[in-house]
Amino acid sequence: MLEDGQSWVSSKSAAQLYINKATIGHSSDGWSDINKVNYWPKAGYNLTFFAASPSDELGAAVTCTPEQGITIKDWNVNDHLGTDVLVADIVENKTAVDNQGWAAGVPTIFRHALSKISGFTFNLHKDYANGHSSGSYNNGDVVFILKSIVIRNMPQKGTYSNTMPSESNIGAWTKAADGVHDYYTWYSNDSGTTIPYSESNSVAIPGSGLSPYSELYLLPQLYLADGGPSLEITYTKRTYSGPDSYLETPITASVSFYDLFASTGNRLVINRNLTFNIVFNIDANLITWAPDQQNWDGSDFKIDF
């Protein structure tokens, strides 16, 4: 709480605590503090609001001070895989309720403080099976069978801080030295999933390995070039020499998150919903021929009869 004429940006060090750790819930009367009734201060004062959610899961990890704003200390994403951490935009220097169109109240606009992987899709660079499908494969056809998707060595613990949350400043995480999770299995199946070629529809692979979750929350962070997390895809390349004969080659391909996020400075940016679109392409390994016609050499043969 500040006196009128004082703004949060210039006078926050003088602010008095007015509402602390209120849990806001919904009822037929709208959104309000579930534990007590809060009233606007007397004329001559204004309020600035901070908020984070969900309150039950965040608990004592979330704090708020004029100097530091919102802080979420030592949050381990792996211990809360079902928790979507949200931080609201700061609402400064308010003296009364606003009508927001959808509701009358303090405008509390939440933004995602984590990022997440929500999907993997797979396709082929071209039809390596030459228009054939199961039961009709023939000599020269190549088939790709996905076996597993694994994310390895992912740092998942850090501290969030933001003095002025907003749409253009959602906040930042400081990665902890510990809290690296060994691996997450998005998908694993010994029989595998055959990936067909399609010009329009890639194959979506649900995160069945994460059960009971279907998405994977990640700590936004700067990735390291050495020893950082990686994405590992295991698949089988099956090359047919006839309708019932083929050679199977098991392949494990791995790419670092450092390289995956090169376009964003090797950093997973906050509030990102990620889908990885993976395309199998073996054109670089095609066997090709380069015929060339050379001039005939002149040769004289002596023949005696």
Describe the structure.
It is a single chain. The strands form 8 sheets. The protein has a 4-stranded antiparallel beta sheet, with no helix packed on it. Strands 13, 18, 19 and 24 form a 4-stranded mixed beta sheet that branches. It is elongated, with a radius of gyration of 30 Å. The protein starts with a strand and ends in a 25-residue tail after the last strand. The protein is mainly β and 305 residues long. It has helices at 8-11, 55-58, 257-260, and strands spanning 2-3, 24-27, 30-33, 45-49, 52-53, 62-65, 69-76, 86-88, 91-94, 98-99, 104-105, 110-112, 115-124, 142-155, 157-162, 172-175, 180-195, 203-205, 216-218, 221-222, 230-242, 245-256, 267-268, 273-280.
Quick structural gist:
The chain is mostly beta strands. It has helices at residues 8-11, 55-58, 257-260, and strands at residues 2-3, 24-27, 30-33, 45-49, 52-53, 62-65, 69-76, 86-88, 91-94, 98-99, 104-105, 110-112, 115-124, 142-155, 157-162, 172-175, 180-195, 203-205, 216-218, 221-222, 230-242, 245-256, 267-268, 273-280. The strands form 8 sheets. Strands 6-7-15-16 form a 4-stranded antiparallel sheet, with no helix packed on it. Strands 13, 18, 19 and 24 form a 4-stranded mixed sheet that branches.
